[in-house]
Amino acid sequence: METKHKILEFADQLQDGRGYSANTVKAYLADIQDFEKFLDRSKIETLSEISLELLRDWLFELNERGLTKATMARKSAAIRSFTAWLHRTSVLETDPGLRLRTPKATRSLPKVVSRESLAQVFETLDSLATEDNPAGIRDRLVVELLYATGARVSEIAGLNLPDIDFSRNLLRVTGKGNKQRMVPFGQPARESLDLWVRVGRPKLQTENSREALLLNFKGGRVGVRQIYALVAGVLSATPTGAAGPHSLRHSAATHLLDGGADLRAVQELLGHASLGTTQIYTHVSIERLKQGYATAHPRA
User: Fold this and answer.
1) Does 176 qualify as catalytic in the annotation?
2) Identified catalytic residue from 65, 176, 190, 288
3) Which residue of 5, 22, 120, 177 sits 20 to 30 Å from the alpha carbon of 247, by its own alpha carbon?
4) Strands of 164-165's sheet, edge to edge?
5) Which domain holds residue 18?
């Protein structure tokens, strides 16, 4: 209730105190409400807990959605205005928004991780996923789930233990608009999940862990930026080069279509509201087909 009340107060002062247009107030309010949902997913209970790290995590999540530069700039401006106001009204001791920069967002074709690069990544992660290294077990699971399910990084970070259905090899993920969907996972992901739940997670679990599936060294929920750093790190050592978690989502979709999967089935897996959004992956597959043809066909 505190957050909702403060957001409404902020909207009132935007219109009355700073003279913003009704459209700008409406847009800023929608942005702050989006941030409020992120706070809920991050288990942040009071506005006084807002930090620079948290703001950066939110912007990374937005960037992973593939938003335009203009949208990212507006959302950054909205959250900076909000944290400045929270500071002025003594909700925050300092203003974390002062040091916040907008991450760059691109709208180019998604980067697809080759099967060879993925094999190299999993070979490396397998060697680190030993029973005396819970972080290694977790890291392998994170990459496995991103690629196996095609889920968004925020959806993987937000997973809870009850979201796993071992009997049917399904995960319940919560996507945009708090819409839930069930996504399947294969045997490698199942084995990684089992090892993490039985062996890895108990070694990092604390009283504050609650039902969060993925835990950091302090027993808290793993954040979006931590997953981003992990994926970029393991991919940087491959021919593909450094790329974010969304590249694994792109790769899952592209590899499924390359293997003959139905476009609507891929749409369901990814949680796209529109089939048109999913069709970008057909363009990726066509580009890969053209490249293969150019390098391999005798009469190319």
Assistant:
1) yes
2) 176
3) 177
4) 164-165, 170-174, 180-184
5) 2-99
List 28, 147, 228, 281, catalytic entry? 281
H-type helices in the chain, by residue range?
A: 2-17, 22-41, 52-64, 69-88, 115-128, 134-149, 153-157, 187-195, 201-204, 224-236, 246-258, 263-270, 275-278, 280-296
Is the pLDDT at 117 greater than 80? The verdict is yes
State the sign of the Cα–Cα–Cα–Cα dihedral 294, 121, 227, 267. Answer: positive
pLDDT of 297 reads 55
Among residues 99, 132, 159, the one where a domain terminates is: 99
Q: Which of 74, 152, 201, 225 does the annotation list as catalytic?
A: 152
**Residue that has been written with the tokens 């590899």 in this structure:** 255
Q: Is 75 a catalytic residue?
A: no
Looking at the fold, whether 218 and 143 belong to one and the same domain comes out as yes
pTM of the model: 0.64
Residue type, 149: T
Q: Mark whether 281 is an active-site residue.
A: yes
